[in-house]
Amino acid sequence: MRGRFITFEGIDGAGKSTQIEAVAELLRARAIDVERTREPGGTPLAERLRELLLHQAMHLETEALLMFAARREHLAARIEPALAAGRWVVCDRFSDATYAYQVGGRGLIAAKFAALEQWVHPGLQPDLTLVFDLDPAIAATRVAAAGDAPDRFEREQRDFFARVRSAYLQRAKAAPQRIVVVDADRTPEVIRAEIEAIVVERLLR
Fold this sequence. Notes:
This is Thymidylate kinase. By secondary structure, the chain is α/β, with parallel strands linked by helices.
């Protein structure tokens, strides 16, 4: 039986990363083999591309092409083999992030994104996408409190993240059968309970 594909999305600081392991634990508790990964990244080559994407300034279209190049490698080397083997893939970001950040945030022409998406993973979308929605002002406070050196995306201005957030919500509205928006302005415990209930309702019944 083919595995299921779950992705986590949201602006930087929305808190999604802290919930990914909770979902992986939920699945393992049900004897489901889990492949946990991230984008951009997930393979040695894709991780090298990630470093360029996060720290090297580049043309917008170069950025989009590299995002999808990393994704194609990730799909071929990890995601597609795992799903074919019956493992469930839990991934931190996927193509919805590219739509939100490059189309919504930076202004990439949507048709170019759609062409890349169709080329790189035609017919493949996550079975469930959880979008962690948060006011960019609150997200920025969380990122600053973490104390890590910001990458070039995290250094963007608040209006950039407002556009990214809006694009995520637009994407969710267009695909309600796949994407669930989660209010990320609550305690981790409350959010964990909600996302576990969503996963059970949507994929485990």
